[in-house]
Design a protein that fits this description.
Strand content: 5-15%
Radius of gyration: 34 Å
Helix content: 40-55%
Number of helices: 26
Shape: elongated
Mean pLDDT: 81
């Protein structure tokens, strides 16, 4: 037997199985029990919320030979015939492909005949808003005064397109978007029945990705299970299949944008592209991430509203202190507009990169929230004691406006012998360090920090992150090499240059100072150091 998709296999057959639409289910059951059944119903709501499913259950319930508390028994011949789609009493019509006057005239002719079995003949017209004006007019009279044995159920995702003359003849029921908790609980229950192991975090992400639609969530879960068939479905598996991005990536991207690190932010996008992430989904998820941050800033009681883990909530609280709400609103505004643009764009990456540059360079916009962002950037630089550049064509504020100059930090009066030895033999360390670490260390300026520490300053955020986080033991390897050469441990400080001025202009490079003779002192180099190649890299 061929495989049946989850959303078809587990389509509710009774009112009790319908999730998230209690207000509608209760009303319909009460009508059936009290025998107060209407002749025309209009079911409105977004896709996958249960409109057609409830319509079929209602059709079974009104024709069921042995109804139970207003719900179909599911065992009588009538219920089985309707469930299998062979009943002559339930007619499903797709208005998207049967939207002409002739199709409605055919219905008008058919309603003259009584049902062959059961009490009611039920017409379910899906996507009814697709009917033409002539078809709506042809439906009016029949819809207003149908035979006593006929029930019309109209389903639509766009109720505003239906003429008021049709609306006034129907009982309207609005199907709500299903909550993440409700979808997650249903998915967990179904996975137990299917005997598939799924992490709770993965279930909740799929439920969130369903965007209020149970059918969409089931389809996405079906896709993830098929890709990792026979394995435990993990959160990472779901991210991989759906092309989604973890919140840790969003946290890093937001911090890069706040710090106006264009290079770092574009590099993050490059990583996502290389990993095959779906960029349209990334834009939507990042907008949602910033929305959560804004809600957290707006009220102290928003923690219960935000559907995120405790770890992510802690990171979100930290970021809430790093950015002003009005600036965050600007970010959300730009990415919300971007969401519509990338949907049909062929060059999604370019649009995303342009949006990120706009976020990092508020001078590109002239509105009030962009101006607020620019002032915030200036204040942050002044608090950090970072010199300002001269006013550029792009509108950066510099020494002419702030009365400061980008001067190189002075060298300490007394440079320790350990620092001098490291500086003079820096080339030897680069020769002995592993190849990957060497690539990133070449992007730093070795200088002198507080208390005569070895200071490594980076302009490049990727190189800074690699060394600062000691990935692949790069920093540990450098410490080990230095300690072997000088016979003691060396304090190393890693710093990211947040200024618009390059680190080379702000921090004295101890290698060039020594090679130029600006430090005029004799050196006593340990015998373990080979002097023959000490200056080979300078």
């Amino acid at each position: 037997m061929s495989y049946t998709a989850l959303y078809r296999k587990f389509r509710p057959q009774e009112f009790e199985d319908v999730k998230g639409q209690d207000h509608i289910v209760t009303t319909l059951r009460n009508q059936i029990k009290a025998d107060r059944i209407g002749h025309a119903y209009l079911f409105c709501g977004t896709r996958g919320t249960g409109k057609t499913t409830v319509a079929k259950i209602f059709a079974k319930a009104v024709n069921c030979e042995h109804p139970v508390d207003g719900s179909p028994c599911g065992e009588c011949p009538t219920c089985k015939a309707i469930a299998s789609g062979i009943s002559m009493n339930v007619i499903e019509i797709d208005a998207a492909s049967n939207n002409g006057v002739d199709n409605i005239r055919q219905i008008r002719e058919e309603v003259e005949y009584r049902p062959t079995e059961g009490k009611y003949k039920v017409y379910i017209i899906d996507e009814v808003h697709m009917l033409s004006t002539g078809a709506f007019n042809a439906l009016l009279k029949t819809l207003e005064e149908p035979p006593a044995y006929v029930i019309f159920i109209l389903a639509t995702t766009e109720a505003h397109k239906i003429p008021i003359t049709i609306l006034s003849r129907c009982q309207r029921y609005d199907f709500h978007r299903i909550s993440i908790d409700t979808i997650a609980a249903r998915l967990s229950d179904l996975m137990e029945q299917e005997k598939v192991e799924v992490e709770e975090r993965a279930i909740r992400y799929v439920a969130k990705a369903g965007d209020g639609s149970m059918r969409d969530a089931l389809s996405l879960l079906d896709q993830c299970i098929a890709f990792h068939l026979g394995e435990t479905l993990t959160y990472e598996n779901v991210l991989e299949v759906l092309g989604a991005v973890d919140t840790e990536i969003f946290s890093g991207l937001l911090r890069q944008i706040i710090n106006k690190d264009v290079t770092g932010a574009i590099s993050t996008v490059d990583v996502l592209v290389n990993e095959g992430r779906e960029l349209g989904q990334m834009v939507n998820d990042f907008t949602w991430y910033m929305r959560n941050l804004l809600l957290l800033q707006s009220s102290d009681d928003m923690e219960e509203v935000l559907d995120i883990s405790k770890d992510n909530l802690a990171a979100l609280k930290e970021e809430a202190q790093m950015i002003k709400p009005e600036i965050l609103v600007r970010y959300i505004r730009i990415f919300s507009a971007l969401s519509d643009q990338v949907r049909y764009a062929t060059q999604k990456r370019i649009l995303i990169e342009i949006a990120i540059i706009k976020l990092c360079k508020p001078q590109m916009e002239k509105n009030m929230d962009a101006l607020t962002d620019r002032v915030e950037g200036i204040e942050r630089r002044l608090e950090q004691g970072i010199p300002m550049q001269a006013m550029s064509a792009g509108g950066e504020i510099g020494p002419g406006d702030m009365g400061q100059e980008a001067k190189m930090a002075p060298l300490p009066k007394a440079v320790s012998e350990d620092i001098r030895m490291v500086a003079k033999n820096w080339g030897k360390f680069m020769d002995e360090i592993d190849a990957v670490t060497k690539v990133y260390l070449k992007k730093c300026i070795p200088s002198v920090g507080n208390d005569n520490k070895l200071l490594l300053v980076f302009d490049d955020s990727v190189a800074y992150g690699y060394i600062n986080e000691d990935r692949a033991g790069g920093l540990s390897g450098l410490r080990h090499l230095i300690s072997e050469k000088i016979g003691k441990e060396m304090d190393i400080e890693i710093r990211k240059n947040e200024s618009a001025v390059s680190a080379q202009k702000l921090f004295p490079d101890i290698r060039s100072l020594i090679s130029s003779g600006e430090i005029n002192m004799e050196f006593e180099i340990d015998d373990t150091i080979d002097d023959s190649s000490e200056d080979e890299n300078f």
